[in-house]
Amino acid sequence: MPLNDHEQQILDDIERRLAEDDPKLVEQVGRTDLYTHLTRRIRLAGLAFIGGALLLMLFVVSVWIAVAGFVVMVLSALLISRYLGQLGRDQIRAMQADGRLSINGIMGRIAARLRPPAPPSDPA
User: Fold this and answer.
1) Whole-number Cα distances in Å, 59 to 65, 69, 123
2) Domain segments of the chain: what residues?
3) Which helix (H) or strand (E) holds 121?
4) If 79 and its partner were Cys, which of 45, 55, 103, 124 is the partner (CB 3.0–4.6 Å)?
5) Contact 18/10 with Cβ under 8 angstroms?
6) Residue 6 in contact with residue 55, Cβ under 8 Å?
7) Confidence at residue 115, expressed as pLDDT on a 0 to 100 scale
């Protein structure tokens, strides 16, 4: 829903004042999008998963360390799954907004994948 002229003017004023007050924040927000934010979180959760696996290998030292490592692995795997799902949903929304995702396009791609390969031509 588009903004009316008064609301757009207020938004422009807020944006201008923010740019004057904190230009570093404006630059950082301008550079960072949802994709980079989620990929950073996925990387951190991946590192936590590896750390949990290393703790799990210390079961020889203590079972409780191994249990803690397992818990860290499960929690980080759940976070990775959540972030990947969120990334997928947002990409689907963007594709829908661009018109690249429609039921006809999806069905056409599925039909193309299910179509049997063409028989080889006989050179003789």
Assistant:
1) 6, 9, 65
2) 34-111
3) none
4) 45
5) no
6) no
7) 72
